[in-house]
Amino acid sequence: MDDLVDIYVVMIETGNFVPGGTYAANRLQDVATLKSEIASWYNLRNVTTQWSLSLASGRKLDNYQLLKIYGVNNGDTLYLQDPELVKISYSENNGPTKFVWAYRKDKIQAVKEKAFPGRANEYAFRFKGAAVNDSSDVKSLVTPAEDAVYLDLIFNARGG
């Protein structure tokens, strides 16, 4: 059938392909159904239709549209992301930029632990461009900027 295409699915936060090779998708199904089927097929219990699915170009697929309007072809890769995850870029003392994935409601301390396992308390942080360091923030990380995808932090080693 011309309406069936084999696609690959990549989990954004890990950069890894969803195990199992390709998934046979029907171009005549809506995107919400595709997300549900991907979750079922790959046994991804936490995936819901609220997760974003996008093309390699970054264009997000609308849940209510048919897959065919996006021009998806055999061998294409679609990218799946939990909307509660954000990519946090950081640098240590203005060194090379690295990144970690965190949940929007994670505390700064949790992000520091991901960035510097076992050494998080050695680091203060400041938001890029901000003049003040604050390592005691207990508020949620991204709540003030609900639509943010990236949040830049700069970690500065305490002392010497």
Provide an overview of this structure.
- It comes from Galerina marginata (strain CBS 339.88).
- This is Ubiquitin-like domain-containing protein.
- The chain is mainly β and 160 residues long.
- It folds into 2 domains: 4-81, Ubiquitin-like (UB roll) (Roll); 85-157, Ubiquitin-like (UB roll).
- It is 12% helix and 31% strand.
- The protein is built from 2 helices and 9 strands, in the order βββαββββαββ.
- The protein has helices at residues 31-41, 108-115; strands at residues 4-11, 16-17, 23-26, 52-54, 77-81, 85-92, 98-103, 123-127, 150-157.
- The strands form 2 sheets. Strands 1, 2, 3, 4 and 5 form a 5-stranded mixed β-sheet that branches.
- Strand 1 and strand 2 (16-17) form a beta hairpin.
- The longest helix has 11 residues, at 31-41.
- The protein is elongated, with a radius of gyration of 19 Å.
- The termini are far apart.
- The model is unreliable at 135-150 (pLDDT under 50).
Q: How are the SSEs placed, and which strands pair?
A:
Elements (H helix, E strand, L loop, with lengths): L3 E8 L4 E2 L5 E4 L4 H11 L10 E3 L22 E5 L3 E8 L5 E6 L4 H8 L7 E5 L22 E8 L3
Parallel strand pairs: 1-5, 6-9
Antiparallel strand pairs: 1-2, 1-3, 4-5, 6-7, 8-9
Protein name: Ubiquitin-like domain-containing protein
Organism: Galerina marginata (strain CBS 339.88)
Distance between the termini: 66 Å
Helical content (DSSP H or I, runs of 4+): 10-25%
> DSSP helix count?
2
- Under the CATH scheme, which class of the largest domain? Alpha Beta
Low-confidence stretches: 135-150
Q: Assign the structural class, choosing from mainly alpha, mainly beta, alpha/beta, alpha+beta, or little secondary structure.
A: mainly beta
Annotated CATH architecture of the largest domain? Roll
The gross shape turns out to be elongated
Order of helices and strands: EEEHEEEEHEE
CATH superfamily caption of the largest domain: Phosphatidylinositol 3-kinase Catalytic Subunit, Chain A, domain 1
Please describe the biggest sheet, giving its number of strands, its sense, and whether it closes into a barrel. 5 strands, mixed
What is the strand tally?
9
How many domains would you count in the coordinates?
2
Strand content bin: 25-35%
Query: Rg, please?
Result: 19 Å
CATH domain topology of the largest domain: Ubiquitin-like (UB roll)
Quote the average pLDDT: 76
